[in-house]
């Protein structure tokens, strides 16, 4: 199985901050990576697929980059509605696997 | 707009089989992969498996001996069966579209308890 790790596991940030979350795969996955946002009590929401492609309707403050084993999700200017947990997921090989999540707190 | 909705019992007894259905609206099930994912309370996401519209399936090896996913194109639904349920299977179960899960259902909390 491909193991996905994320760093940090949690972070505190202020409104307006630029935030970067890192995701690493235990082996190369090309660009077969997705990012999700999950708020408490809600289903995950797809933000990015193919490492850097924005899902329809997702604001452009979210961006993704990377290929191979190292990937990043960046939120350019954090807003109150962005405080949530973020997960990465590889879909390069089976079983599909998720990272453990990064919780973004209000500072 | 594609929408997915899980349905099924919220409480299952130990050793019994869980049956959940996902109804797809706003689009045809006759394309894409259709996935099941679960999330134990307070924990992360675990992929259970998916079915392709052709009927081919792929399951997480950790659950493979207990899981079955099927498709009913006439009802635009796909279903999950998970046998020999234990307390460790207590989770919110989500259905989703595709291997990159672009659309998700709202989730169904399933508790395993006698």
How would you describe this protein?
The complex is a heterodimer of chains A (107) and B (114). Chain A is mainly beta. Chain A has strands at residues 4-7, 10-13, 19-25, 33-38, 45-49, 53-54, 62-67, 70-75, 85-90, 97-98, 102-106. In chain A, the strands form two sheets. In chain A, strands 2, 4, 5, 6, 9, 10 and 11 form a seven-stranded mixed β-sheet that branches. A four-stranded antiparallel β-sheet of chain A has the order 1-3-8-7, with no helix packed on it. The N and C termini of chain A lie far apart (36 Å). Chain B has 114 residues and is mainly beta. The model of chain B has no long low-confidence stretch (mean pLDDT 96). The N and C termini of chain B lie far apart (39 Å). In chain B, strands 2, 4, 5, 6, 9, 10 and 11 form a seven-stranded mixed β-sheet that branches. Chain A binds chain B through residues 1, 34, 36, 42-46, 49-50, 55, 87, 89, 91, 94-101, and chain B through 35, 44-47, 58-62, 94, 99-107.
């Amino acid at each position: 199985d491909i193991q996905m790790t994320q760093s940090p596991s949690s972070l505190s940030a202020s409104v307006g901050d630029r935030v970067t979350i890192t995701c690493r795969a235990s082996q190369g996955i090309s660009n077969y990576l997705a990012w999700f946002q999950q708020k408490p009590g809600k289903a995950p929401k797809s933000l990015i697929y193919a490492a850097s492609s924005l899902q329809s309707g997702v604001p452009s403050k979210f961006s993704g980059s990377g290929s191979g084993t190292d990937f990043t999700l960046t939120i350019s200017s954090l807003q109150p509605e962005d405080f949530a947990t973020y997960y990465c997921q590889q879909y390069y090989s089976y079983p599909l696997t998720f990272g453990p999540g990064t919780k973004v707190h209000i500072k | 707009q594609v929408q997915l909705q899980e349905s099924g019992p919220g409480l299952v007894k130990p050793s019994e089989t869980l049956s959940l259905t996902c109804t797809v609206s706003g689009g045809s099930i006759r394309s894409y992969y259709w996935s099941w994912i679960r999330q134990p309370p307070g924990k992360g996401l675990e992929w259970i498996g998916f079915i392709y519209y052709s009927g081919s399936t792929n399951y997480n090896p950790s659950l493979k001996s207990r899981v079955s996913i099927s498709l009913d194109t006439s009802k635009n639904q796909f279903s999950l069966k998970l046998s020999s349920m234990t307390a460790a299977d207590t989770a919110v179960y989500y259905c989703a579209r595709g291997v990159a899960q672009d659309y998700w259902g709202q989730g169904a909390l399933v508790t395993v308890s006698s």
